[in-house]
Amino acid sequence: MKSLRAYRFVNLYLPVMLEQTLSTVSTMLGTMLVSGLGTAVSAGIGMVDQINFVFMNILTCIATGITAIVSQCVGKGDIKKAQECANHSITISIYASIIISIFLIIFRVPLLNILFGKAEQAVLDSASIYLFFTSISLPFLTLFNVFTGIRRATGDNLSPLIGAFLSNIFYVIITIFCIKVLKLGISSVGYGLLASRLISSSILQFFVYFKPRILKMPKPTIKINFSILKPVLDIAIPNSIDGIIFNGGKLLVQVFMSGMGTAALSANTICNSISNFIQLPGKTFQVTCVPSTGNAYGSGDMQKTKKVMLSQTLCANISQLIMNVIFYIFCGKIYLLYTNDPQVLEYSHNLINSFLILSPIFWATSFMTPSALRATGDAKFTMNISVTSLFIFRIFFSWLLGVYFNYGIYGIWVGMYIDWIFRSTFYFSRIFSKKWHTKNI
Asked: How many CB atoms lie within 10 A of CB 1?
């Protein structure tokens, strides 16, 4: 029995880990290549990423909701309901992504000027070009996330891996070709991103509709039945509000940084890129905990669900610690591959070292544990804690330390760590309560 559980765990975890690694490494390579074009380009990408996080969250939450509900329905044995929820989720994702994409394309310049008017003009010009490409490709990324959520909910992690593998190969090849041969500057990463998202969504669409696993999907519907979507939206809406406010808060923090100089903005972009790589084990558990928790919850076994959440949290912390030690020993100065600017290097060195110390303790319980709680439908609680922590800790302390006391980028990151500590305390203790036991399906 233990060997069977171990096999299922490895079968679930490894494909997701490989997929996350491919995506993160290819993004890092793209950031390294673009960083070679100057700190203004690197800073512009960092600013746009914060804007994209706000809007992408709305769409990602639908994928999270459908993963949780389909896995619950599969655990319960209600395949028909799972198919209906998945079908309508695809439709609403298409509509929402197109609306957001059009909005960002039309208003990208005034939006950047309002938020980051203090930044240098070269930074704003780079950000405008990059935001145009990310906006065009947004519907394809949305479909990839939704299709991936459907497949993972049915126990398939191989097709998302195939999609990620092929799309990231094209991303790197096209980006390098556009930078080195066509000399297109920041547009190079835009073309690479657009091609990779189109390819990944097409591959996953093929698997969902032509290689069904458990769910045999009907033809896409044009009309949306919100009564069918209610279980999905009960998770997606609070999660979306949570994410919008959280990423909106991070965007506000980015506004604080826009007056701290291009070197600080560039270092922040580089450190975010590196930290995404360091977080690979934790982010993998953040993905796998949703279908595994949702399936256990759908079976009606609350004790089993609790054990799943605790084991996933423990494994995430341990794997994150191992990753950080390995990274420190072998890759501690990887930021040298991004830039040779002395000030940017100094910022990056100090920020990454602080991250290596604190992330194994607090990151998993701050971001993986709430994902597991959402899989049980406990989305309102996670939203309330996230919003409270954001305003009281991350935004306030980022302003207090980074702006008022003039600690700059260091004060911004300390505010982030204080936010982690608060979230961890409440999310982890929530697992031991019975308030998430209420059934949603």
From this structure: 5
348: nearest Cα among 330, 363, 333, 329: 333
pLDDT in tens, 170-205: 998 999 999 889 989 889 989 999 999 999 999 999
Q: What is the C-alpha to C-alpha distance for residues 75 and 96, in angstroms, rounded to an integer?
A: 29
Nearest CA to 242 among 366, 119, 343, 414? 366
Mapped onto helix, strand or coil, the DSSP state of residue 322 is helix
Residue type for 253, please? V
Judge residue 118's burial from the number of C-beta atoms within 10 Å of its C-beta, 0-12 exposed, 13-18 middle, 19 or more buried: middle
Q: Which amino acid is located at 12 in the chain? A: L
Residues in CB range of 95: below 8 A, 6 or more apart: 224
- The pTM of this model reads 0.74
CA distance 221 to 240: 23
In the structure, how many helices (H) and strands (E) does the chain have?
16, 0
**How many degrees, rounded to 5, is the angle at CA 372 between CA 50 and CA 248?**
20
Residue 244 is predicted with a pLDDT of: 78
CA-based R_g, the chain, Å: 21
Q: Could you tell me which of 68, 20, 121 has the C-alpha nearest to residue 372?
A: 68
Closest CA to 147 of 130, 129, 167: 167
Please name which of 5, 16, 6, 3 lies closest in space to residue 288, comparing C-alpha atoms: 16
- Sequence-distant (6+) residues with CB within 8 A of 311 are none
* Helix, strand, or coil (residue 178): helix
Rounded distance, CA 24 to CA 27, Å? 5
How many beta carbons lie within 10 A of that of residue 218, not counting itself? 11
What is the maximum alpha-carbon separation in the chain? 62
Length of the chain: 441
3-state secondary structure of 213: strand
Compute the distance between CA of residue 295 and CA of residue 305 in angstroms, rounded to an integer. Answer: 8
